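pls design
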């Protein structure tokens, strides 16, 4: 990957906008970083913070939880080469949604969490996932970056239609993303009971350990992928920037030609005007010469 110099980035910001310069800086900086950022997202009360506390083995709620909305800004916990990032719940305030979405797109692995107590994905969740997929803009990248988690499985897993419900959610996710992605069912409640009672079977059935193992094993694998992913993103970004600059250059050339044509037309008009003046005085001079000659011959 050929890096843009500071001068190049300033030019990009001037002619293409702050977004493109910022994206270039972000990709260049990320290539030097060995931390894998795993960000969560989902509706309020989907269990994002509770799940992250379980993943980092926090017994004192490093990420605040509660029945009401508690996460209003991004928070992170760094462990080895992984940074777990907790974001505000979506569809509450537009400011929170903007903050969450920007954080999501600047992270590596996106863990979308859905509260199965509410049934299938609602419209807000579906549109949120659609926006993420649209911005990633690649089915292959979606399968590398998005992990889907169903939370609160303990509240419905004994119901006769639970398997059908899970199947419906999987189908929704598949239709939005365009491919199968890692899918987990978890119960933080079972996990906490397993810790308190020292019961391995509860820990295993909670699904939390399975998700934790997957993320910890996948993180270094993703880190190895990220360089090629960054090169791919950089190439696409550079292509977009080149297209914008070519368009700008074409527009400038057309404007330059329009100015040149106007100047030429004005100069042509002035030449014609002065030619008329010159022709008039030339004619008067010839007449005067003729009169002088007549006078001499008298």
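designed seq:
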């Amino acid at each position: 990957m050929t890096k843009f110099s500071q001068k190049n980035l300033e030019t990009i910001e001037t002619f293409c906008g702050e977004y493109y310069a910022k994206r270039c800086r972000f990709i260049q900086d990320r290539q030097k970083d060995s931390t894998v950022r795993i960000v969560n997202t989902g509706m309020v009360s989907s269990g994002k913070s509770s799940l992250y506390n379980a993943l980092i083995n926090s017994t004192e709620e490093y990420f605040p939880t509660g029945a009401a909305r508690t996460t209003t800004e991004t928070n992170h916990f760094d462990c080895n080469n992984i940074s777990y990032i907790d974001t505000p719940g979506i569809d509450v305030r537009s400011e929170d949604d903007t903050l969450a979405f920007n954080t999501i797109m600047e992270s590596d692995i996106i863990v979308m969490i859905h509260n199965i107590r509410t049934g299938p994905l609602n419209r807000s969740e579906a549109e949120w996932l659609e926006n993420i997929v649209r911005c990633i803009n690649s089915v292959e990248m979606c399968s590398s970056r998005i992990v889907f988690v169903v939370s609160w499985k303990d509240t419905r897993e004994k119901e006769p239609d639970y398997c059908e419900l899970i199947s419906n959610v999987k189908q929704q996710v598949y239709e939005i993303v365009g491919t199968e992605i890692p899918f987990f069912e978890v119960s933080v409640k079972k996990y906490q009971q397993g810790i308190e009672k020292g019961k391995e079977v509860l820990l295993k059935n909670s699904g939390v350990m399975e998700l934790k193992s997957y993320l910890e094993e996948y993180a270094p694998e993703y880190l190895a992928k990220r360089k090629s992913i960054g090169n791919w993103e950089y190439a696409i970004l550079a292509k977009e920037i080149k297209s914008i600059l070519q368009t700008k250059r074409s527009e400038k050339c057309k404007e330059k030609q329009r100015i040149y044509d106007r100047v030429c037309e004005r100069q042509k008009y002035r030449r014609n005007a002065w030619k008329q003046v010159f022709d008039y005085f030339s004619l008067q001079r010839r007449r005067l010469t003729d009169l002088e000659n007549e006078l001499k011959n008298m």
